[in-house]
Amino acid sequence: MDRFDALQAFARVVETGSFTKAARALDVSNTTITQLVQQLEARLRVKLLHRTTRQVRVTEDGAAYYDRVVRVLADLEDADTGLSSAAAAPRGRLRVDVPSPLARLVLVPALPEFQARYPDIELHLGVSDRMVDVIGDHVDCVIRGGELEDSSLMARRVGSLALGLYAAPAYLQRAGRPAHPRELAGEEHRLVGYLRWRSGRIAPVTLHRDGEAVAVLGRHALAVDDGNAYLAAGVAGLGVLCTPRYMAAPHVARGELVPLLEDWRAAPMPLYIAFPPHRHVSAKLRCFIDWVAELLAGQPDIAPP
């Protein structure tokens, strides 16, 4: 039994939940995958997978073993790409999780250039606003706005998001245009709340002007935990938004959103790429981080770190 092939086969079965899909991913036969996993279990004298005719589930021992296998495979890949000849052409799978608006508006449209520059990197892109367990979910890096809550992670600040207040024309016709942030606490106004994923609490908004700071504590008819849904709620006239300007800009250009209280400013939102605290950063991850920093540096309404 080739131990590397067996470890790779086991990892792919766990990740895909299927011997057939794992075989397809590794470009080998189903029989080969089955034999490699069986040989691995025989050598370890532990059952790693529960198999039925309909599904494959990892056992408790298998889940613990998988966590270690993933690290071993990653270290082997890093050792290969650390060589000077391999570092010139980084390759391999890269798992990344990014907020949905940033993916839709900035990252995905630019990916053809990334793929042309790094054709041997296979990018697996998770798109969500939820807090991802970078280590537990086996993610190579995440891009997140706001201060990072997990101090154990390594992080690189890649930009700052300028924020603004916006509302749909239909909302302003109904509720009126506020002249001061305190008016948003009035009976006629509503805010769209953005829920913090981990706590379920609504993220507060504080505006500043000439040394004056005002916490916007208006009523919320709706609160959501996804950036795209948050933006859609504002466009639909459900309330006032406080959102990154790069997200609002296309809707402002189309007349779907109107900027409010433009002489007031919210503190910029820091934007980070966070990754596990490995001994070193792999060549493929380093290339991706540098590319994202370069991409964001050219975006309006996203300031340098």
UniProtKB/TrEMBL annotation:
Domain of life of the organism encoding this protein:
Bacteria
Keyword hit for Transcription regulation:
yes
InterPro entries noted in UniProt: LysR-type_TF_proteobact-type (IPR058163), LysR_HTH_N (IPR000847), LysR_subst-bd (IPR005119), WH-like_DNA-bd_sf (IPR036388), WH_DNA-bd_sf (IPR036390)
PROSITE patterns noted in UniProt: HTH_LYSR
Pfam family name, one:
LysR_substrate
Which SUPFAM superfamilies does this one have? Answer: Periplasmic binding protein-like II (SSF53850), Winged helix' DNA-binding domain (SSF46785)
Keywords per UniProt: DNA-binding, Transcription, Transcription regulation
> Which positions fall inside the HTH lysR-type domain?
1-59
The family annotation for this protein states:
Belongs to the LysR transcriptional regulatory family.
Q: What is this protein called?
A: LysR family transcriptional regulator
Q: Which organism is it from?
A: Pelomonas lactea
Instruction: Give the taxonomic lineage as stored in the record.
Output: Bacteria, Pseudomonadati, Pseudomonadota, Betaproteobacteria, Burkholderiales
